[in-house]
Amino acid sequence: MTYDYDEQNIFAKILRGEIPNTTVKESEHALAFKDIAPQAPHHVVVIPKGPYVTADHFATEASDDEIADFWRTFGSICRELGVTPDQGAGYRLIANAGSDSGQEVPHFHMHILAGRPLGPMLNS
Ligand code: 5GP
Fold first, then answer.
1. Annotated catalytic residue, options 29, 107, 109, 111
2. Which residue's CA is minimally distant from atom 20 of ligand 1?
3. CB-hemisphere CA count at 13 Å for 46?
4. What proportions of the chain, in percent to the nearest 5, are helix, strand and coil?
5. Which residues fall within 8 angstroms of residue 46, CB to CB, at 6 or more apart?
6. Which of 24, 30, 106, 113 reaches 20 to 30 Å from 80, CA-CA?
7. How far is CA 80 from each of CA 58, 70, 119, rounded to the nearest angstrom?
């Protein structure tokens, strides 16, 4: 694995408390907060606390505890937002990775988007 983690990325600064955030949920290995530029009524970003650049990096190198904690945190947020299809109208989960995806922040994160019809998966 040849990912270089940039310790100065914005989410690393949020994790170190150098930049404020509106926390939605925090667990041992994960932090979830509101996106600063929401694209939907609910727009939550979920990140692992460890230094992972992309989803594949996280899936390959994170410990089982980190991976389980991350997904459990994601699941509980969806339930608490009331957006799971069994209790609401659903959500979209997005994880950009690398240049073709338009990933802006090089710390693995998942976007949870919900609260309105989200349209087609891709615009182009
Ligand atoms: P990406 O394009 O990398 O998938 O998503 C990065 C996301 O981070 C964007 O949706 C952007 O609005 C969000 N973002 C960038 N800077 C900040 C910040 O300082 N605070 C928060 N809460 N979100 C940020």
1. 109
2. 36
3. 29
4. 25, 20, 50
5. 30, 31, 32, 70, 73, 74, 77, 109, 110, 112
6. 106
7. 25, 15, 23
The answer to whether the CB of 91 is under 6 A from ligand 1 is no
Binned at pLDDT 50, 70 and 90, residue 123 comes out as confident
pLDDT band at 2 (very low <50, low <70, confident <90, very high): confident
Does the beta carbon of 122 sit less than 6 angstroms from any atom of ligand 1?
no
pTM (predicted TM-score): 0.97
28 lines ligand 1 (CB under 6 A): no
Q: Is 109 a catalytic residue?
A: yes
Q: What is the pLDDT of residue 75?
A: 98
Q: Is the CB of 95 under 6 A from ligand 1?
A: no
Q: pLDDT tens digits for 69-95?
A: 999 999 999 999 999 999 999 999 999
Among 6, 9, 10, name the best residue to mutate to test ligand 1's pocket (greatest count of ligand atoms within 8 A of Cβ): 10
